[in-house]
Amino acid sequence: MNLQEQINQAETRIFKTVFPNTTNHYDTLFGGTALFMMDEVAFITATRFTRKRCVTVSSDKIDFTKPIPAGTIIELIGTITRIGNTSLDVKVEIYIEQMYSNHREKAISGSFTFVALDENKKPTKILDDIT
Fold first, then answer.
1. CA-CA distance, 42 to 36, in Å (whole number)?
2. Which of the 8 DSSP states describes residue 20?
3. 59-90 residue pLDDT tens
4. What is the pTM of this model?
């Protein structure tokens, strides 16, 4: 498998329903809950790409462009955007889908950086063989 195929295969898509227990007093998804879900999808994406232990070291520029109302479906999509020596970046986007129509729009996007760790919890190379 070449590098682009490995990147493509690591893309992660998760669907969730926005229930009232995840919303604020405006009946929209809590920002902290959205960040939790985004970090989880980013972690899964990083792990699927590296097949190594990965930890979040930073998040960057999280843009909340649309409120996400209760009673909608959301899709979180994680994609690899940068591969370093021991770290990689994952972009996560959240799309809103209305339950009873085909309307869909991007609501949140952000970037997360992960570091791969070895068995001694020390940074290790992302790619074992750079070709």
1. 10
2. G
3. 999 999 999 999 999 999 999 999 999 999 99
4. 0.94
